[in-house]
Amino acid sequence: MKKAFVVGIAGGTSSGKTTFSNLLEQALCDLKVKNIHMDNYFKPEQMRPYAKAHVTQKMYVDNNHPTTVDLPQLEKDLADAIDENEYDVIIVEGFLTLYDDEIYDMLDLKLYIECRADERIVRRIKRGIERGRTFDQVAEVYLDMVRYRHDEYVESSKWRADLILNGSTPSAKAFVIITDTIRASI
Description:
By secondary structure, the protein is of the alpha/beta class.
């Protein structure tokens, strides 16, 4: 039996990773697709590390550090899904997808969703407000912590991608190329 084709999608906060992975799953609905979201692997808040902001020196729960995600469990679940041989395609998306070597080594196609920081902060603020946070709460965390962790762990993994996609104005042509590549590989 053929091994599942594994697609990894990375990018910064609010760049469009989840949206893209869900659209990809829908476009491949005639196939057996498993969609793994890294957000489902965040550790309970009391188990996440704390970090001091570079400029303000304020302490934060560091939701953008590799140790805040249960990466070993995600790696195991991904490996198990591959070994089960029940899927044609497995999509794994999250901010550390291209950063983590164990996950990276299981990927057949590596995608990075590129989106400018100003657009990502606006999207993140909108999402935060929808979840009951204030503008100031979301902006403060982003400016004090998230953007620094992005540079450290996410942006630096971009060079590992096979393709870098536009998260601001997604290309229909690129989407067709990706789905055609996946279909030709299974």
